[in-house]
Specification:
Number of helices: 20
Number of domains: 2
CATH superfamily of the largest domain: Tetratricopeptide repeat domain
CATH topology of the largest domain: Serine Threonine Protein Phosphatase 5, Tetratricopeptide repeat
Structural class: mainly alpha
Shape: globular
Radius of gyration: 27 Å
Largest sheet: none
Distance between the termini: 57 Å
Number of strands: 0
CATH class of the largest domain: Mainly Alpha
Low-confidence stretches: 1-74, 428-459
Strand content: under 5%
Helix content: 55-70%
CATH architecture of the largest domain: Alpha Horseshoe
């Protein structure tokens, strides 16, 4: 990387950032967790605000160098970067310069880092320096563009600061992010208005002010931002953000959010489904069929809590759904692939008994899914893993490891694990409290379909 200053009007500030308490902030988490269904009378998941998507990079380079036939050639990453840089320097087009800055940030994120060994300390330092140089150059260019009023640069630079990119010691810096969110919001950027609202609501880089948060949310909502519409809906349902409690208005906000739902913001679909499941007097009637439709829409957008709920509905025949092993497993799998711990454990139960023509019985898969749920903190899964290891279901017996899992579960109040630890401790023999009994599919299950009754009968451990 060239050492000279590539862009003017910029000085890199090395002041100490003052990010919010990381334990209280999952606004910018890479994997936001909305696994728990939240009734309208409870605290809102929207207060754990969701990170809005960053502007995607777009290609700028002339790709004429990619010639067909025997002359075909791909440029190296370094050469591509240099051509991109030269192109950005030649033009005065702020959009092209912005795209180059985004390209550099993405390149820095994906820059391969050597595996640490005793002999490559210098290589690691060089790779880290290269990454820092790219980020420094990108943020310098973004700041230059932001100072000249380029709205996408204002938002993207704020997003970088909020995620600890280009900041002192890579810490989240809302003190610099918040003013840029506000600036981009004033220029009409819906995501920026939403993010400014969450900052005001939570006191990130500014004072905690509910009234200001509502102003920003309303500005984003006017542009159809699903996250802002959802937050206003939950606030009206619960009487939050200094707003009067108004279930009717809250439902209207949620309906608008559901109409604009995206993979980033599917939450209104799930919330409306829960509301239609139980109804609200004089506001919303109970409608199981519509509730399952909403859950299906959210599940197709990849929302794990909705997929898990549908898995339950098709497994046990809830909310008017037929018992359908194929659909139950399908929806559990959508949620489990996103590390939804209850869905992982639900797949454990399915693999223990299997389902004819749908899912082959597999103790090994049952153990692996149970372990995944246990590692995610599900207490009953910890007990199950302990039992699998004690008896040797889907894995080789290992009494020491079984005892560790039993202790983990017992420490969190699991009575069955406490019972297994009493007396002489785990024994590598089948039977006893919590045994897995009759794991083959019974005649009753074959005729009535796999469901809760069948699984409870065949799998007492669950």
């Amino acid at each position: 990387m060239p050492s000279e200053q590539l862009y003017d009007d910029y000085s890199y500030e090395h002041e100490t950032a003052t990010p919010p308490d990381p334990d209280a902030d999952d606004f910018y988490a890479s994997q936001p967790n909305f696994h728990d269904a939240v009734p309208y009378s409870a605290a809102s998941v929207a207060t754990q605000s969701v990170r809005a998507p960053s502007p995607p990079p777009a290609p700028v380079l002339d790709h004429s160098h990619l010639r067909p036939g025997n002359q075909a050639a791909l440029l190296s990453h370094e050469r591509t970067l240099e051509l991109y840089r030269a192109n950005a320097k030649k033009t005065q087009d702020p959009d092209l310069q912005f795209e180059f800055a985004v390209f550099m940030i993405d390149a820095a994120k994906n820059l391969p880092q050597p595996v640490p060994t005793l002999g490559n300390v210098m290589d690691i330092e060089k790779a880290q320096q290269k990454r820092e140089d790219l980020i420094r150059e990108a943020t310098a260019l973004l700041k230059k563009l932001a100072d000249r009023g380029h709205m996408p640069s204002q938002y993207f630079l704020a997003d970088c600061y909020a995620n600890g990119i280009g900041t002192h010691k890579n810490r989240q810096d809302f003190d610099r992010a918040f003013p840029l969110f506000v600036l981009a919001a004033k220029h009409g950027h819906p995501d920026a208005a939403y993010r400014a609202g969450t900052c005001c609501e939570n006191g990130w880089g500014c004072r905690r002010e509910s009234a200001k948060a509502v102003q920003f949310y309303r500005k984003a909502a006017a542009a159809g931002h699903p996250g802002a519409l959802y937050r206003l809906g939950i606030a009206e349902l619960n009487g939050e953000l200094s707003l009067s409690k108004s279930p009717r208005d809250g439902v209207n906000w949620l309906k608008r959010s559901a109409e604009h739902a995206t993979a980033e913001f599917p939450h209104a679909l799930h919330e409306l489904a829960l509301l239609h499941e139980r109804g609200i007097d004089n506001v919303l009637f109970i409608d199981y069929e519509y509730a399952t439709e909403l859950l299906a829409q959210a599940a197709e957008l990849g929302y794990a809590p909705s997929a898990y709920r549908l898995g339950e509905c098709y497994e046990y025949g809830k909310m008017g759904c037929p018992q359908d092993p194929a659909l139950s497993i399908h929806y559990y799998n959508i949620a489990a692939q996103q590390n939804h711990r209850d869905a992982c454990f639900a797949l454990t139960a399915w693999y223990l008994v299997g389902s004819p023509s749908v899912l082959p019985q597999s103790d090994t898969e049952a153990f692996l899914w149970a372990k995944k749920a246990a590692e995610a903190g599900l207490v009953k899964a910890m007990y199950a893993v302990g039992y699998f290891l004690e008896v040797g279901i889907g894995t080789e017996p290992n009494l020491a490891e079984a005892t560790t899992w039993y202790k983990n579960a017992a420490d969190q109040g699991d009575k069955r694990a406490q019972q297994r630890l009493k007396g002489h401790g785990p024994q590598a023999v089948p039977g006893g409290p919590g045994s897995v009994l009759l794991r083959s599919v019974s005649d009753e299950m074959s005729t009535s379909g796999s469901g809760k009754n069948g699984k409870d009968k065949d799998c007492i451990i669950m």
